[in-house]
Amino acid sequence: MTHVLIVGGGPAGLSAALFTAKNGLETTVFDTDGTWMHKAHLFNYPGIGSMDGSAYMEVLRDQVGEFGVESHEAEVTDVSQDGDGFSVTTDDGEHAGDYVVLATGANRDLAESLGCDFTDEGIVNVDVTMETTVDDAYATGAMVRAEEWQAVISAGDGAAAALNILTKEKGEHFHDFDVPETAEELFGNLIDE
Length: 193
Description:
The chain has helices at about 10-20, 55-65, 110-115, 150-170, 180-185, and strands at about 1-5, 25-30, 40, 50, 70-75, 75-80, 85-90, 95-100, 135-140. The protein is an alpha/beta fold. It has a single domain, classed as FAD/NAD(P)-binding domain. It is globular, with a radius of gyration of 16 Å.
């Protein structure tokens, strides 16, 4: 059983995967590569002057891969609670985990089948940490927003979910903040010179 199951491999899902895997949680991402980013060009993403959305996704996938994220190119057909955790069903089988992060863009079907509450606007009801009304289940990006669909907002949602998961796992408020000395010591092989 993995710690974190992430459904969706766009900016929200991969941002969550980056934070959880970097901090020692076994993380699995399920994705069909249908992200809107393939139709995007980034001019308004912090730190990126200009980049094709598909090129950005390739960089992000490589980055999470370096931290050991397991990726499955598979469509998730169901997400359900399974005892103290969750079960994700794909055409290649079932996968169990302690937490689930839904990062499926505006598609809210899995959140509905999981039993998450929705607002009067028809979006998934989450708190500031992106946790839904189902404990340990998170929703991110366009499924929790009526209109604000930006890659940078989605990535922030994924990071918020990941930090809350890490807080629960560590038993205290968790902050992912590296300083140069720590980064060099822990991740020297991943640092660009």
